[in-house]
Structure formats: structure tokens, C-alpha cells
Design a protein that fits this description.
Elements lengths: L1 H5 L4 H20 L3 H10 L8 H28 L3 H25 L5 H5 L3 H9 L5 H26 L1
Length: 161
């Protein structure tokens, strides 16, 4: 990291490089799962009896979920030098963003629970996995991704001083 920070590279470029590297690695790992979709489509009775809209919506939702989780992971790794601690922090933040807001909305201490539930990733992912690509869901995932990338950049800048 020290070698990178001594080069004339913008901090945001360092963060984007790490983010894109991790994101592309996860995409490469997900590509073979398309074989399952093809196999289920061919084995269906009748052949091709598969809700393609729901499957494609689930994959798009998964891509946006992966984008947000990758940004959270990159942010967690910028907080500490220890990989295990960064992993635990990332898992905790991802768990909170997926299940935490819905759990908070179940307590009904905030009045209208719909707004608290909409802060979490689960409701947005479920909406996309039904095959409905709503701009609110896409903007939510892109906003969370951008937020954690910016937080990572600020954390690297702060640690560099």
C-alpha cells in the first residue's frame, strides 16, 4: 500500500482498481451458474418452461447485490491491515444492511416501518428477483456502492496523512 501511495496515482483510482478487481473475480465465479439455468430450462416439462423474467431479474439483482457487497468489503479492508478483522467487519456490515433494517422495522418503534425496511437490501433484492427492475432498487444499490467507495477513498486519504 505504501508503494502505491507514493506513486502519482489518485486515491480514487486505487480504490476503483481494487473494487473492479474483486467485482470481476466474483462475476467470473458467477458465470458458470448460467449452466444451471440452461439445464433446468432443457429438463423442464415442457422444454423451456422457465420464467426467464424472474431468472434474469434474480441475476440482475445478484449483480447489484455483489456490487454493494464488494464495495463494503473494500471499505472494511481499508479500515484495518488484518484480513480476518476486515472479513469480520465486512460480514457484520453486509449482514446489517441485508437483515438489520428489516429487523429494526419489526420493532415498530420508529412509527412507519415501511421506510425503515426500505433502507435494507433485502426488500430491494426481493423486488428485483421477482423480475421487476425498478429504478428505485437500482438507484439504491448504486448509492450504497458509491457511498462505500467514497468512504474507502476518504479512509485511505485520512490514513495517508
Amino acid at each position: 500500500m505504501e508503494l502505491l501511495l507514493t506513486k502519482p496515482i489518485i486515491h480514487l483510482n486505487i480504490v476503483f482498481a481494487k473494487y473492479l478487481g474483486a467485482f470481476v473475480l466474483i462475476i467470473i465465479a458467477l458465470i458458470p451458474t448460467l449452466l444451471y439455468v440452461f439445464t433446468i430450462s432443457k429438463l423442464g416439462n415442457p422444454e423451456g418452461n422457465l420464467d426467464v423474467g424472474s431468472v434474469m431479474g434474480s441475476y440482475f439483482g445478484l449483480l447489484f447485490l455483489v456490487a454493494a457487497y464488494t464495495a463494503i468489503g473494500v471499505f472494511a479492508s481499508s479500515l484495518t491491515d488484518n484480513q480476518i478483522v476486515a472479513f469480520i467487519i465486512a460480514v457484520f456490515i453486509c449482514f446489517f444492511f441485508y437483515f438489520g433494517f428489516e429487523g429494526l422495522s419489526n420493532y415498530n418503534i420508529f412509527g412507519d416501518t415501511l421506510y425503515i425496511e426500505k433502507l435494507g437490501m433485502e426488500s430491494h433484492f426481493k423486488s428485483m428477483s421477482r423480475g421487476v427492475l425498478d429504478t428505485r432498487d437500482i438507484i439504491y444499490f448504486l448509492s450504497v456502492t458509491a457511498l462505500f467507495i467514497v468512504l474507502t477513498k476518504l479512509n485511505i486519504k485520512r490514513a495517508n496523512k
